[in-house]
Design goal:
Blueprint lengths: L4 E2 L3 H4 L5 E2 L28 H7 L30 E4 L20 H12 L1 E5 L7 E3 L10 E6 L4 E5 L4 E4 L5 E2 L9 E7 L1 H8 L3 H22 L3 E5 L2 H8 L8 E9 L16 H7 L17 H11 L7 E6 L8 E6 L2 E7 L3 H7 L1 E2 L2 E2 L8 E8 H8 L3 H22 L2 E5 L5 H7 L7 E11 L7 E3 L3
Helix pairs in contact: 3-5, 4-5, 5-11, 7-11, 8-11, 10-11
The structure holds flavin mononucleotide.
């Protein structure tokens, strides 16, 4: 991305993030702009057949993907225009994440702002292997397309995070930096998605991946904010989301989710206990493993299961369950474990390899080497109830719920030096049957394989801003 101007984040450095908007915004007392009518011509992002075409099968993936060619008609650069606007450098991100007295000021504190953005969605690793995917961010992304965008929205302005340059970009027209602060005003982290970026490779399968990744990003912001001592309220509500995006959203983006960053006068809360002080190193080490997920068949440390359970218990939303098929975790019986309502318990013992290999298939091929994984997680949501209640919007909502939990699993694995691979090569109907889910109600939206990383050909170096 390139910008035409480079500005100074004067506001943030002096404890302010706010800018004067070019024109008046209709602001509700909560700080959310009024709901604007959906942009004319914007198509339904999640048509009902996506459940069948992209969750219960993968037929929406074009054949061209195998060759790495763009899907037909998807190479148009206009669909993913670079962001224009005043550029504002962020402070260098800290090496460690912890609550500080500055946390009380929320995102108006420059160090807190920089840390939150960098460790939620920043560029953390550079893979210098020739022919590899060079840039890796805090959150996983299918073939590193990174369709999600993260925007900070206050009642008066909006700034887009540019992870590649560790900058903010003003996206709200010709706003100028002012010395104007809004004590107590709500601040939102808003997640949108540029489907075109992923559709270029994945064709009509892109909305499914984009929805998954939006959820994972929401989980990342929630987690990093907690580590910084910030209180957040994650949201799925469609009207609030549309209000936050109205007049700010580039035409090619879909609104996906948001978190309200709450102003607080309380001393900052301690970060997530399951991570203690280790979140930043875990995020810097997080990775999805080599091109083919074939981990070292070494047992994972015994603390892994407790940490996975604690991570799930800290997820932003609670209406999901997670089934863990455990093979190689020290001092833990192999078997089928379930996490639900904040608790983890074992429902079946015995080696679950046969289950993993029957679930983890695409068109008859087993998707990863389950024989050497430590465990594999399946995140299930209540699809039947959600579709009856929210119609087509259930797709977005449920992927936010499951995706935010999936990111936490990846981070918990990274904390133990393990790779965690989100892999969509699974048979959702088989998962329903074999995991004992409620038929026509529960659906698995994520399969996450976890195992000990083998030294591979890739060489990743940390990115420092
Ligand atoms: C939603 C989602 C779906 C993915 N699906 C697959 C998949 O089907 N097969 C696969 O090999 N990797 C899959 N991946 C893994 C990504 O390719 C991987 O995250 C990416 O290469 C970035 O690597 P990193 O997470 O180590 O930075 C998926 C990742 C995400 C986030």
């Amino acid at each position: 991305m390139t910008g035409d101007m480079t500005g100074e984040l004067t506001g943030a450095r002096t404890g302010e993030l706010t800018c004067a908007p070019a024109g008046p915004l209709d602001v509700e007392p909560s700080g959310v702009t009024e709901r604007a009518p959906r942009a004319p011509g914007r198509t339904e992002p999640f048509p009902p057949k996506l459940w069948a075409d992209a969750v219960y099968s993968r037929r929406a993936i074009p054949a061209t993907l195998a060759a790495g060619h763009p899907a037909p008609g998807r190479a148009d650069a206009d669909l993913d225009p670079p962001l224009q606007g005043l550029r504002l450098p962020l402070e260098p991100p800290p090496l460690h994440l912890a609550p500080s007295p500055g946390s009380r000021a929320g995102l108006t504190e420059p160090a807190v702002l920089a840390a939150l953005l960098h460790y939620s969605y920043g560029l953390l690793q550079h893979d210098v292997t020739p022919g590899g995917r060079p840039l890796h961010r805090a959150v996983a992304s299918a073939r590193c397309r990174y369709p999600s965008e993260l925007t900070l929205v206050t009642p008066t302005t909006a700034f887009r995070f540019d992870p590649l340059h560790h900058q903010l970009v003003q996206i709200n027209g010709s706003v100028t930096i002012s010395q104007h602060t809004q004590p107590g005003a709500s601040q939102y982290a808003v997640i949108t998605s540029r489907f075109a970026r992923t559709a270029r490779l994945y064709g009509d399968y892109a909305p499914r991946l984009c929805a998954q990744e939006a959820g994972m990003l929401l989980g990342a912001v929630h987690l990093t904010a907690a580590a910084l001592g910030l209180a957040t309220r994650p949201g799925q509500d469609r009207d609030t989301l549309d209000g936050l995006c109205a007049d700010r959203l580039p035409a090619a983006e879909h609104p996906m989710g948001y978190l309200e960053i709450l102003p607080t006068t309380q001393p900052p809360a301690a970060g997530p206990s399951w991570l203690s002080a280790g979140l930043a190193p875990a995020l810097r080490a997080r990775h999805s493993g080599a091109a083919i997920f074939d981990p070292d068949p070494a047992p994972a440390p015994r603390a892994l299961l407790a940490d996975l359970g604690a991570a799930l218990a800290a997820a932003p939303f609670t209406d999901f369950s997670c089934h863990l098929l455990v093979r190689r975790v020290a001092d833990s019986a192999p078997g089928h474990y379930v996490h639900s309502d904040g608790r983890l318990w074992q429902v079946r013992d015995g080696d679950p390899l046969a289950l993993m290999e029957r679930i983890g298939q695409t068109e008859g091929r087993v998707s990863v080497n389950f024989r050497s994984t430590a465990c594999t997680a399946y995140i299930a949501v209540r699809r039947g109830t959600a579709v009856a209640r929210y119609g087509t919007d259930a797709f977005r909502r449920l992927h936010l719920i499951a995706g935010s939990a999936a990111h936490l699993l990846c981070v918990a694995a990274a904390r133990h030096g393990l790779s965690a691979r989100v892999h969509n090569g699974y048979d959702a109907a088989a998962a329903e049957r074999l995991l004992g889910l409620t038929m026509d109600e529960e659906t698995v939206l994520f399969q996450v394989a976890i195992g000990a990383a083998r030294p591979g050909a890739a060489f990743r170096v940390p990115v420092v801003f």
